[in-house]
Every structure is written in C-alpha cells, then in structure tokens.
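## retry 2 of 3
previous attempt timed out at serialization; input unchanged, resubmitting
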Amino acid sequence: QVQLVESGGGLVQPGGSLRLSCAASGNIFSIDAMDWYRQAPGKLRELVATVTSGGSTNYAASVKGRFTVSRDNAKNTMYLQMNSLKPEDTAVYYCYADIAVVGVPWHGYWGQGTQVTVSS
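## retry succeeded, writing output
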C-alpha cells in the first residue's frame, strides 16, 4: 500500500515563507511526475507546481517566481518552498504522484492535505 504524507503547513504572515514536504512510502517501484495542488474554500482544486522524475519543473502563473518545487528521488520526497506568501495563497495543499508499485500498474495517489494560512 502506498501513502503520501504532506507536512509543513501552518499559519504565516504575508510576505513570509513555508516549506512543504510530501513523502511517499510503501512498496514503491518507481515514481513518475509529482505535483502540488491547492484548494481554497469555495474554489476548485488547482495545479500549483509539477516536478518530473528528471527534475524538470512547471508552475502556475500565480506562483511563478515565488514558489520552488523540488524532489529527492532517493527519499521519495517532494518539496515546495513558498516565499513571499500572499493571503490568496491560503488553501489546503495536496500532493499527487503517479507511482508504480511492484506487481501493480501505474496509479495516481493523493496525500491527505496540509493547511496553509497566510494572514496577519
């Protein structure tokens, strides 16, 4: 069984920084792309950032230049460094990954989410 566990959320003032982590565990054979999504109250879940297994990255326009996504393949862990945070960044942040488990076809997995609140 595969689990994705996010951590690092919390309350931060505007202009502050947070670093989120997403750790994958289980009988993992390989992980393809890993994504960060977020969902604010009353809004649809949106893609924030993607990092491929080779380290290529892509960002939503709203976070480009402020957020940095990275991963440590040896630890099966993805990170999201968030700087210059704004109140509109307030949301539950979720990680998502396409993972191959030994003996099981590729499948997408979601983490449980971590709350990020930007407020003075």
